[in-house]
């Protein structure tokens, strides 16, 4: 059984990452990483800008995925493309010698619909563009690719045995690309996974996340003339609205940790036609898969009741489902120590002016301009963030550590035009390069000291528990390759 919260916190606070080599060697490795980052920076930022300009949505990242693969091929990686029945998913491998740790890195690449924005400090939509990188996945993908290439160079130069795996992971935004990859066995044989995410602060706090499940509920009724023959119609929109009304009453009777969101994606085309078809798209979140499942069952019951009460029928398609993140203190402490070797971010005069313009539009006033220069103090409490990610499913199958860097102006919220703007210029580039350096130095330490991998694995096994049996929340459905079309 999974340990209690108090037991988990006690375990986490006791974990330390002892190094077999001294600080001078660590500083030497950091200096090597810094030199390599300088050499690769133009290539990495060019790749990030390409992905930013293309802004391809989930499962449609054809050019973005190909560009990441091309850079890795040129660096000597072998590529396995189209894994897990996803055309844009891939794993790139670089091996040196026999044995040694297998280090996995994640590379997201999908954009968000409806947030097309120029790299300007005022609202400037790009006309005719359907999406924008409001969560910084262009930086995520390019930064992780840069780290993988630097690690491959270190393996070659040092002769140290080990393997680097870069996972190209599509459709994080509501598509659960990584879940299908986990389900297909893509992470089998990987010892640890390191990942990062764009943010407005530099932090390697061992955060958890909310488990999340979504579905499109499709109601079917009978069309008729809304004025001349209303008695003959059965409104599918009534079914949707009845469901929404009852779910909103349900909110009073769920735990405080539960989150439920919906949008009506099809409500009919004309007021004088009783809608024969209507659709509502639901997300449900909670602290864990175990807590989420009974709430989800109640939402399904509400859908059935809404259909019965309105004389319609309903069916639903589960679109995605993510487990919560399982933090790993061993890996997060390692990432924290690695980031501190490089320090925070310094803006140029032009970037400072850009940031000052955006500061008044910030959505998180508790984060202030100047935070980009700092690294948040390490806190082992494993607090849950309010968001969800398909990295959660990876973390329940492979020991996983993660962190964030200030690719956005402090105070900026994800999924905003301000995040898109900063991600398309020097502010985003600098945060991405700090992330690439941090990943690389942490990876070198894991390759140098396999006992750190063993320590991370031991913590992972203790937290997960002996009787844990992983089951994807999205069941056995195939990847929804058209969910953004």
Automatic annotation (TrEMBL):
Supply the Pfam families for this chain. Answer: M20_dimer, Peptidase_M20
The residue ranges flagged as biased composition, category Basic and acidic residues, are: 475-485
One GO BP: folic acid catabolic process
Q: Name one GO molecular function term.
A: dipeptidase activity
Query: What keywords sit in the KW lines?
Result: Hydrolase, Signal
**Signal sequence extent:** 1-20
List every stretch annotated Disordered: 457-485
Ranges for domain Peptidase M20 dimerisation come to: 213-307
Concerning InterPro entries, the annotation shows:
Amidohydrolase (IPR017439), Aminobenzoyl-glu_utiliz_pB (IPR017145), Bact_exopeptidase_dim_dom (IPR036264), Peptidase_M20 (IPR002933), Peptidase_M20/M20A_hydrolases (IPR052030), Peptidase_M20_dimer (IPR011650)
One GO cellular component from the entry?
cytoplasm
Query: What name does UniProt use for this protein?
Result: Aminobenzoyl-glutamate utilization protein B
The root-end lineage is: Bacteria, Pseudomonadati, Pseudomonadota, Gammaproteobacteria, Cellvibrionales
